[in-house]
Design goal:
Helices cover about 30% and strands about 30% of the residues. It is of the alpha+beta class. It has a domain at about 25-65. The strands form 2 sheets. The chain has a two-stranded antiparallel ribbon. Strand 3 and strand 4 form a beta hairpin. It starts with a strand and ends with a helix.
Length: about 70
């Protein structure tokens, strides 16, 4: 996995080397395991993607919580 990636106008650009980011590879490797789910809580693991993406998802979910 590259150390540096950037979001471009039409996709994700890998800026650290010459390899190309692949949606098919991403889709194949992404796994979401639900650990616990009830009326008020949900615990899950996101596996197979860079922690920067996972943190972005976490921030989006937290911004949607009614205060």
């Amino acid at each position: 996995m590259p150390e540096t990636i950037s979001l471009g106008e039409y996709g994700v650009n890998n800026t650290s080397n010459d390899s190309v980011w692949s949606y098919d590879h991403f889709k194949k490797n992404l796994k979401i395991n639900i650990i616990n789910y009830n009326e008020t809580d949900m615990e899950f693991d996101i596996i197979g993607i860079h922690n920067v993406f996972v943190n972005s998802i976490r921030r989006i979910l937290l911004s949607e919580v009614i205060k």
